[in-house]
Amino acid sequence: MATVLAIETSCDETGVAIVKNRKVLSNVVASQIAIHHPYGGVVPEVASRHHLEMVNSVLDQALETAGLDWSAIDGVAATCAPGLVGALLTGITAAKTLALVQNKPFLGIHHLEGHIYASYLTETTLQPPFLCLLVSGGHTSLIHVKDCGVYHTLGHTVDDAAGEAFDKVARLLNLGYPGGPIIDQLASQGNPKAFTLPEGKISLPNGGYHPYHSSFSGLKTAVLRLVQALKQDNQPLPVADIAASFQETVAKSLTKRAIACAVDFGLDTIAVGGGVAANSGLRNYLQEAAKLHNLRVLFPPLKYCTDNAAMIACAASDHLNQGHLSPLTLGAQSRMSL
Ligand code: KG4
Ligand code: ZN
């Protein structure tokens, strides 16, 4: 029954949470979205500096909300990879220092393992094996979750991540950052059948297509060409129709691959994680398709879909229960396979 305090600083959210096994005792997130908004994306150096400024107060808040002092904490964890190195270093250094000073075990957690664990926070009945569809700003993966720490990536994007595609399309439509929620909102007012956009497919040497890998850079280029053509004709840009058509293409593509994976590998549950799990188009498509195949789909609440430390603490708590620890020499890495 391990109680773990975890720090998440892989990108633009400073998160600290305390989780006792799968129960969240506190989950504090200081978002930097407003700070990066004028730049149209996350500026790595700015992100690290703000994590440094925020981490102590977020930490105090997490302990205060949980009503705990250090004697109740069994371990200290931090996201160690993948992510922005400067940002990761802030969290991992804080966690290692606390572990050393408070004489607690330290655990470095893979960010994607955290996103997988987000589903356990509210679905107490969830047990491996299951399929995780992980769709965030940096990743688009289909992961066969076999056990704690045992993961097999079955599919991934070969270029842009799904969230990155939402952000880039929003930028070329001058909609602001982050693009996902804005496109989602606009799409609800548009016609998803207004424009036919290409679903990225990965060719195989035998002439077929990879059933689980995805590609979004061609789709983004198709939206760019469409916008250029419409502008040339001096037509007012039907932004809501473009947003709806783009969103439907992404939702269909992700749904098709996730269902194929689950069916082919005999997995009856698809747990969705990452910021794009908030997308209403994806939620609708996947839920409808899953019904047809008798599959269960789990979407964690929004606060656990986007980056947060509760999912990191949950993963760390499971690892600690199994006696897994990390050395204090562990560093941060921008890239690391799961
Ligand atoms: O998981 P996350 O918070 O951070 C990463 O680890 O990347 O995901 C952020 C991504 C951004 O690209 C954002 O545009 C996207 O999730 N996102 C959405 C929605 N809400 C956030 N994409 C589509 N629809 C949404 N409602
Ligand atoms: Zn993430």
From TrEMBL:
Record's GO cellular component terms: cytoplasm
Record keyword Protease present: no
Cofactor: Fe(2+)
EC annotation from Swiss-Prot or TrEMBL: 2.3.1.234
Catalytic activity: L-threonylcarbamoyladenylate + adenosine(37) in tRNA = N(6)-L-threonylcarbamoyladenosine(37) in tRNA + AMP + H(+)
Pfam family, one: TsaD
Protein keywords: Acyltransferase, Cytoplasm, Iron, Metal-binding, Transferase, tRNA processing
SUPFAM superfamilies, A to Z: Actin-like ATPase domain (SSF53067)
Binding-site list for Fe cation: H111, H115, D307
CDD domains hit by this protein: ASKHA_NBD_TsaD_bac
Cofactor note: Binds 1 Fe(2+) ion per subunit.
Enzyme kind, highest EC tier: transferase
Keyword Transmembrane listed: no
Location within or outside the cell: Cytoplasm
Domain Gcp-like, residue spans: 23-313
Classification via PANTHER family: TRNA N6-ADENOSINE THREONYLCARBAMOYLTRANSFERASE, TRNA N6-ADENOSINE THREONYLCARBAMOYLTRANSFERASE, MITOCHONDRIAL
Function: Required for the formation of a threonylcarbamoyl group on adenosine at position 37 (t(6)A37) in tRNAs that read codons beginning with adenine. Is involved in the transfer of the threonylcarbamoyl moiety of threonylcarbamoyl-AMP (TC-AMP) to the N6 group of A37, together with TsaE and TsaB. TsaD likely plays a direct catalytic role in this reaction.
Family: Belongs to the KAE1 / TsaD family.
Protein name (database record): tRNA N6-adenosine threonylcarbamoyltransferase
Organism listed in the record: Planktothrix tepida PCC 9214
